[in-house]
Amino acid sequence: HVQLVESGGGSVQAGGSLRLSCTASGYTYGQACMGWFRQGPSQEREAVAIFSYIRGSPPIYADSVKGRFTISQDNAKNTVYLQMNSLKTEDTAMYYCAASDLSGPLIVPGDFGYWGQGTQVTVS
Asked: Which whole number is the average pLDDT over 30-43?
């Protein structure tokens, strides 16, 4: 049984930083794809930063977060992180950790079978 648990969301002023964490259980790191999505009010869920565990493949970032967000992982802790710097009001959303059994790179929410409960990020 795969379980993803996010933490680290909160409220921050524009220009500030937050780090989100996603701890996985029952999921084998390096299996396929894992990363972060977000969904703002009245918006569709979109990929923010995705690890594709294909050899040599760099992480995928949404254009809107390139240069500001960084995805990383600690295999020993079964945890994936999303470091968010220079936050903007348009980054306000519910952020979700997701994992897939399919080979990546993947950015479509429907390709991810495992989801966390989400953590709210509010930038004012």
From this structure: 85
pLDDT value at 13 more than 90: yes
Answer whether residue 57 shows pLDDT above 60: yes
Q: What tens digit of pLDDT does each residue of 62-78 get?
A: 999 999 999 998 878 88
Are 84 and 66 in contact by the 8 Å Cβ rule? The answer is no
Given its phi and psi angles, is residue 15 left (phi above 0), alpha (psi -120 to 50 degrees) or beta?
left
Q: How many angstroms separate the CA atoms of 36 and 47, rounded?
A: 6
Which residues, including other chains, have CB under 8 Å from residue 119's CB and lie 6 or more apart?
6, 7, 8, 9, 20, 94, 95
What is the C-alpha to C-alpha distance for residues 29 and 2, in angstroms, rounded to an integer? 12
**Straight-line distance from the first to the last Cα atom of the chain, in angstroms, rounded to the nearest whole number:** 37
User: What gap in Å lies between CA 123 and CA 110, rounded to an integer?
Assistant: 27
* Cα–Cα distance measured from residue 110 to residue 84, given in angstroms and rounded to the nearest whole number: 24
Give the rounded distance of the alpha carbon of 11 from its chain centre.
17
